[in-house]
Amino acid sequence: MTDAKHMTYDRGITVVIPCLNEAESIAQAVAKALAGISRTGCRAEVLVVDNGSQDGSAEIARRAGARVLHEPHRGYGSALRAGFARASHDIIVMGDADLTYDFERLDVLVQPLLDGQADLVMGNRMRSIKPGAMPWLHRYIGNPLLSMILRIMFRNHSVHDAHCGMRAITKSAYESLRCVTTGMEFASEMVIRAIRCRLRIMERDIEYHPRIGESKLRSFKDGWRHLRFMILHSPTMLLLLPGLIFWFAGLAISLPLAFGPIIINQRVVDIHCMLLGGVLNLISMQIITIGLLAKAYGHLSGLQEDSMIAWLYRWFTFEKACLLALLLLMLGMMVVLW
After folding, report:
1. pLDDT value of position 4
2. Which of 193, 186, 192, 195 is nearest to 81 (CA)?
3. How many CB atoms are located within 10 Å of the residue 188 CB?
4. Are 219 and 267 in contact (CB under 8 A)?
5. From residue 39, how far is each of 8, 33, 115 by CA, in Å?
6. Is 52 left (phi over 0), alpha (psi -120 to 50) or beta?
7. pLDDT tens for residues 156-186?
C-alpha cells in the first residue's frame, strides 16, 4: 500500500486535448483537466494540440494554463499522435475539448495505471449518456455494432465502447503500438494494436455530456473509416475465410457434375446446379482476391506486419505466377476435353 502511494505522488500525468475551433469550451476543458490531475496528487501537464484553429482557441488555452502545440497536418489522429509524442509525463490521458468528457474524473481512468494493473484504460460511455449527448444512430447502432465487430474480429471481449475518446495509457505502452493513422480511425487503431501487442486493457464507466460547439464528426464517413481499418487489419476473418468456404462449397457442387449428371433419389442433378456452383466459385474468388489485396495493402502501408504476405512477396515471382496459371489452364482444358 505504501509503494502504491509513493508511485501515485511520484508520477506525472499529461492530458492531451486535440483542438480545432473550440474557443467556447477549451478554457473550461483545460481547467477541468488540471483539477482532475490534482485529485491524483501527480505532477500535471495539459497539452492542447491546435490543429489549425481560426477562432483564437490556442491563445485561450495558453492563458488557461495549457502548453500549446501547433500541428499543421489536419486530422484527429495527427493531432493526438503529435501530442502523445511531445507528452512530458509517463501517463497520458486523451479527451476532447468540447466538454463531452468530464476531465475532473480522470482519476477513475488513471488509477489502474498508477496501481500497475493495466497498460491501457478505456472509458465506457454507454451506461451513462446524458440526455441529448449522443444521437440514437450512434448510441443504438453505430457504436455497439462497430464495437461488437471489433470484439469478434480480434477475439477480445474487454472493450465495449471502442470509439470512446477518453482513454489513459502509459507512455511506454503507447510507444509500443506504433500508430500511423491520421484521421478518426486512430481510435480503432489504438485498440487493435493494443490487442495485438497483448497490452493489459481495462474499462471504466464514464459520463458522456452534450457537447459545446459544432461537431466535426461525420457519421457515415467516419464509421466507414473505422470499419475499413478493421477490415485491413483482419481480412482473414472477414474475407479470406468466408471466401474459402464458399469456394470449397462451389467446388463440391460443380466438380462432380463436370463428369455428367448425378441421380439422387430418382432426381437428376445436372446443369442448373453446376451453374450455381460455377457462380459461387466466381464470387468466392473475387472475395478471396479482395482479401489478399487488403492483406497486401495493410502490410505494404505499415498498418501491420503480415508474415504470409511477406512470404508471398519473396516466393511468388512473376515467372512462378505465369507457370502456375499455365498449369491451371492446362488442367482445366484436360477436364473439358475428357
Report:
1. 38
2. 186
3. 23
4. no
5. 11, 10, 15
6. left
7. 888 999 889 999 999 999 999 989 888 888 9
Q: Could you read off the pLDDT of 137-158 as tens digits, one per residue?
A: 888 888 888 888 888 888 888 8
Q: How far apart are the first and last CA of the chain?
A: 80
Report the C-alpha gap between 167 and 173 in whole angstroms.
Answer: 13
Query: 3-state DSSP call for residue 21?
Result: coil
Reading the block at residue 257, the C-alpha cell is 457434375
> Which residues of the chain form beta strands (DSSP E)?
12-19, 43-50, 67-70, 91-94, 120-124, 167-170, 201-205, 262-264, 267-269
Q: Is the pLDDT of residue 50 over 90?
A: yes
Determine the pLDDT at residue 301: 63
CA distance 63 to 19: 15
Cell of residue 65, nine digits? 494554463
Q: Who contacts 202 (Cβ-Cβ below 8 Å, separation ≥6)? A: 112, 117, 118, 120, 121, 122, 158
| Sole residue written with cell 472509458 | 123
Order of strands, sheet of 91-94, starting from the edge strand that comes earlier in the sequence = 67-70, 43-50, 12-19, 91-94, 167-170, 120-124, 201-205
- 179: CB partners within 8 A, 6+ apart: 77, 81, 186, 189, 190, 193
Cell numbers placing 93: 490521458
